[in-house]
Amino acid sequence: MQGGANAAHWPAAEHDDDEDAPIDMGVDVGVRADAVGTKLDALLEGMTLKDANMKRFIGKIVKMQRSAGIGNYNKYLAANFMFMIVLLGIEADMAGLFLSAGTYWGYDNIILRFFLFFFLGSFMFPLMIRTYVTWEPSEEKPQNERNDGRPGQNKNGSAHDKFMNKLNTEVRMPGVRFYLICKPSYDMTDVDAIFKVNSLSSFTLGIYQIMGIVFTYASGMPFNIYVYFNIVTQVLNWSITILYYATPISKWMGAAANARTICRHYQGIMNAYAVDLSRSTTTAFRTPGQERQASMDIRCAGIKVAITQIIMDKFFADCDPALTDEATSILSKMRDQDVKEFVTILRNEAMSSLDMKGGL
Fold this sequence. Notes:
The chain contains twelve helices and no strands. By secondary structure, it is mainly α.
């Protein structure tokens, strides 16, 4: 009786055949997976289209710049290297003279001995005069405090020429010139001064070394290592002198210093933007930092808005309204990785102002 009561209260055991019955989920799993895959493909296709539109938009602007000669600044890289060569040429010219002076003095030729002192004085005295004596009446301090909108002018109204300053110590002193390599930034004043010192060296010390080379050859004297060194230095220095007077290389070298400053400025903008992005990502993992994250996001978004406004002003100010609206729509979808491309475009626009054609 007791066992029958228990049997009455407990439900009958399920059959083992029910374990193999199919599970009804309402929707077939394969169909759902296909639907998700289709949506994902559509999403990826939309992202690819957006990326293609942005790249095409950037490419058009870059093409416009290149057609105007903007964006190719390899000459500034060559000019920076040339500046180092000019410094080397001046020092090599002086070293060549002192190394070979004993050789030429040993020829016991009165002309060579006379011109050794003559050209040494011809090199040193102009440097001393240019360093300690001011001849130009235009070397007045510029009246930068004027309120008539014409800064950098002298009292007589003429433009102030900052390139007429006295020669600095690092320009006139042998060996110390290499300080210009370590100098934070050199400008057109340094370039002009270095080329003038190089030209002075070529027309004084260089002429004496050429006289010594010619006399060595004409008298049948043996060519020692110092004479060969003179030949190398003269080829180098006279090539530099010819480039200075016959090409705009000195202007490129002066502009190269400004170009490097502009590049560093825009690189600083990108560095600051990258820092804001990294801080925004970092604070996203911190619950108490929501306000700070919002501030970083606002700063990053503000940079994109500023870039959009500048690009529209520079390239689409006078365009058809329909084209302007389309450009604004594309720029409104600017991604973080696109900021670098647009900042590069703006940097190239700024550097293009350095390329003034013609002039001396």
